[in-house]
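Form 7-S
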Amino acid sequence: MKPLRLPSGALLTALLFLSSFQFPPEDMLPLGARIPLAERRMPATDGESYALQDLQEDQGLLLIFSCNTCPFVRAWEETYGPLSDFARESEVGMALVNSNAGKRPGEDSMAAMKEHAAEAGYQMPYLLDKHSELANAFGAKTTPHVFLFDQAGKLVYRGAINDKFENKDKTARQPYLMQALQQMVAGEAIERADTREIGCSIKRPQS
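Output:
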């Protein structure tokens, strides 16, 4: 994979501003809600199809709305591997979902997803949400946007992976998601269950 040149200065500010638009009409899934559309099967880059209820493991399910080219995804993508390793060891299912229906065919097509998954070395299912229906059901707004469910299938954390883009030097200091995972698996109350999602807006189908 080619080295990523991250956005900076005015460009990053503009991206953050634009990420506030194109929100779905639905409200975001509230904490405590159960997994929506859990039986809906979606194709994945490995050639299989999966339903979220099948991906959920004994301790829960971690879902990240992602994509191929968003600079915020690329900047956070290095965390996907450690998150996947911890989830697997802790019996928490994990999947990435691409809901950018407005960019198909194109840079978020299944062919592009397969290429990106191979380049990035994804060890978790990378699902295609064909008409952004799953994103709409979750009220997912950005890439990335995290939703973590416990063993009962109830939402216990939503928001960002960490605070990387809340700091001027773009250094992560608060690993929100990893802390939530660790606390959930340990049976502890999650100290910070709701953080601000930051990223590129999910591109819904063109009307």
